[in-house]
Amino acid sequence: MRRCFTLLIVCILRLNYAAAQEVVVRVSDFGAVPNDGKDDLKKIRKAFKKAETVGATKILFEAGVYDLFCGNVQAEEALVLNHVPNLEMTGAVDADGNPATTLLRHYDMGHDLKARNLLRINECLNFKLSNMVFDNYPRYMTSGEVTFNDGKNVAIRIFEGCTLLDESLMYCANLWDLDTRNLKHAQSVTYGGGVTRKADEYAVRVVNHPERVVMVRSEDVATKVEVGDGISWHFGWNGTQVDFWKCDNMMMENVHSYSAIGFHFQSSLCRNIKGHKVRIGREGPDLNCGSRDAWKLWLCMGDIHMDDIYMDGVRWDGQNVHGKHLYVVGTEGTNKVYFTYNGMAIERIEPGDKIGMWKNDSTEIMMTVKKYDLLPPTAEYKKLAYAIFEEPIPEFISSNTVCNPHSHTCQYILENSEFENIAGNASLLRNNSSIVRNCSFHHIMYPAVLLGGDLDNESVTGRNLLVEGCEFVDCAWVARNGAKAPVAAGIHKYKDFTIPYIYDMKIFNNRFVDSNTAIHLIKVDGVEIKGNTFENCNEKVKLDKCLNVDSDVE
Questions:
Q1: Which CATH class, in words, describes the domain spanning 326-405?
Q2: Which among 236, 281, 454, 535 is least surrounded, fewest beta carbons within 10 Å?
Q3: In the prediction, which pLDDT does 17 show?
Q4: Which residue in 516, 514, 525 sits closest to 489, CA to CA?
Q5: What are the residue boundaries of the structural domains of the chain, listed by start?
Q6: CATH architecture entry for 24-139+238-312
Q7: pTM (2 decimals)?
């Protein structure tokens, strides 16, 4: 009896201690009231500052819609959290367990906005985002039906509830079957920033406002569309909605996003990421939901685990997992190498990290970093860094040498997830180790699962991929990296660099339906293909320059 009483006291003390450690910041305490139509932006910012000051463990939102009147989204970020460890930003859930708290961004509409973040999380260790919905008003995209085409002019009726914007440009346009609301087997009508260079051709003008009819005077568009087609496009293609920067051990759970200006979510230089019950997809009359990737993961490390993910109507890649190449620009002494690189500064390369240097298509020399640092820009190179290695520099090093920072790679698992109507790749894997298991991929324009790299821009050279127990239906009518199949491997070439081999792919017990070619692998060393089924596939497996193949496909 005395022992039981002692245990009870210990439990109570532990609960009291835990409660004492929890520091909750409620946005309602700062005047943020959902569903009243009033601006909550400054009030939520005050709550965030309080959370930073007191080291909060939770920022709590009640159920409902919080209106964020952001004005010029190119000028500043809406909400920012800096350096708060062990923090959960959480909303409410409805009776079905879905997120019931919405952050709705209002902004000054215009074409080709380079929007800054709705939410940015900087260096918050053990951060969790849960039970939240992200959306924009008006949505930075639109959809309609082609009603007229004379070979030079195309009329489109914009659906009720979709954004009507005069004198906009037709960015990232795609065609849809309106009966099924699935992507049509067609190339994208327009793509990315090339629209700006042909602004007159891709301008969209309202010609009948009450009937919501717009006109595009473009022979190029006219040749690609037919009367009765559904068509969607965006008013720009740049920006990121929610950005996680150097957030180690981060998690998103029960989070939805219905529209974005650019990327929906982006994780950069984060170590260890979990995603669970994340839905990124179209809602209402819209045919698509964003002009770029749904969730981009780049320069991330450690373990990435995605479970119960749903993506639908994404304009580009569902998930793009990649690092960044380094390119040699000079050497000094026996062990110092100068590098340049594309895009965001390559950070978090530390002593002991490995950088692989490609000698040819089958030989990568691994070097151990002793010291690494960024350098000021020069007239020739905007981005510059150097590394001092423990080992002597290989004799083959030259200005064409491509280098893989193996610190910027991860162990990636995607399982129990569903991807539909992605006008890109569903899962683009440019990292060292990946598992895609028990997922479904329907109506994916490019290869649904693509292992490989872009030697001009993104990634290490991919390797070690297991695709198991997945279903692929009607995928890959457009090639990428030279490969055209639901499961594919290939590399985008850089200058005159010899395309290296991709290593180790296992493709087990998957179902392929309605594909011209089901599996297409280019220069893979170490291939196992077993237990898969093929229905209405003209070609089961296509292997280009592959080595060490073990397949049960005849």
A1: mainly beta
A2: 535
A3: 41
A4: 525
A5: 24-139+238-312, 141-234, 326-405, 445-551
A6: 3 Solenoid (2.160)
A7: 0.93
